[in-house]
Amino acid sequence: MAVSPERKQDVEGPGDPVVRFQSYLHGGTSSLLSTLPTLIVFPVYKTVFRQQIHNTAVHQAVGQLCKEGPVKLYRGVVPPLVMRTLNGTLLFGLQDTLLHQLSSQTVVSTSALSAVAGFGAGVVEAVVFTPFERVQNVLQNSQNDRQLPSLKSVLVKLRAQRMASGFYRAFLPIAARNALGSSLYFGLKGPVCGVVAEQGLSPEASSFVSGTLTSMAISLTLYPLSVLVANMQAQVGGEVKGVMACWKLLWESRHKSLTLLYRGGSLVILRSCITWGITTAIYDRQEKRSG
């Protein structure tokens, strides 16, 4: 749970570099410890990806993966594992840094500080991690297996492209998704944790439930942006269309149906419950111990 600026300033000075370092360390540690669940649920993520790209039902996506075999099942797992650890380090640490910077300003209300700091952290996160997501989506698309059989071949191919069509393809929807998602996460998880704690749960359980519920709501709300990103990033080469043109094509390919657009959404809930619930619980526990 994000600690209020007033309480943090009572505990430590607003510019204490040790405290700032601890936030980055705790964020990285909590995300690193959640890499095991990431490995476990990666087949789930890949199933969702197939649904997003090919607009197939769950049993059809699972059938495709089973037919391809266990070796290809984990093709593309390296980028999300690396990104997961670095993501937690940057997201939690930068949000805490921005929170302390904003706490000295009178422009932003106290209740909105965590959300505003989360928004800024989400934008920086998009700048840093869009290339990771791009590589991951190219690797997970089975249509690229022949042309781009390895991680090295993908990197070489993307490096030869312009930034906007190569590593930073779909940057705008990613920035919107990450900024809004981070803002909602940091703005909501504290109040939600407080409500859950009133039900008599332990601090660790309250943090876990808070992280789960918050990330679940965010994932479902922003799921269409994730589908758009996956479709924009899965291919390399060919005609490069803008965000609105890609959205129009996606919407028409789903027959203008929200039900078809949200295919795989239930699996996103499962993934969020496991990863962000654990990450939030570990991070909050570390923060309370160091506080």
Automatic annotation (TrEMBL):
PROSITE patterns xrefs: SOLCAR
UniProt keyword annotation of Transport present: yes
Domain of life assignment: Eukaryota
Keyword NADP: no
Chain positions of Solcar repeats: 22-101, 109-195, 202-289
Keywords, ordered alphabetically: Membrane, Mitochondrion, Mitochondrion inner membrane, Repeat, Transmembrane, Transmembrane helix, Transport
Family listed: Belongs to the mitochondrial carrier (TC 2.A.29) family.
Protein name: Solute carrier family 25 member 53
Organism phylogeny: Eukaryota, Metazoa, Chordata, Craniata, Vertebrata
Gene: SLC25A53
